[in-house]
Amino acid sequence: MNENATGTSEKKKKRKKKRYFLKFTIVCVLCYGAYQFLMSDSFNVTSIEINGNEYYTRAQLIQMAEVRTGKNMFEFDLSAIRDRLLEDPYIKNVKIRRIPMGKLRFDVTERVEYTAVPYGESYVLLDVEGTVLRVSEDLPALPLLLGMSLVEMTPGNALVVEQAYLLTDTLALLEVMGEYQVYFKKVDFSTVMVKAYIYDTLYCEGAPGNIRENMGSVEKLLYELYQQDITHGVIKVGKDNYLSFSPQIE
Question: Of 26, 86, 130, 196, which residue is least crowded by CB atoms under 10 Å?
Answer without folding.
Answer: 26
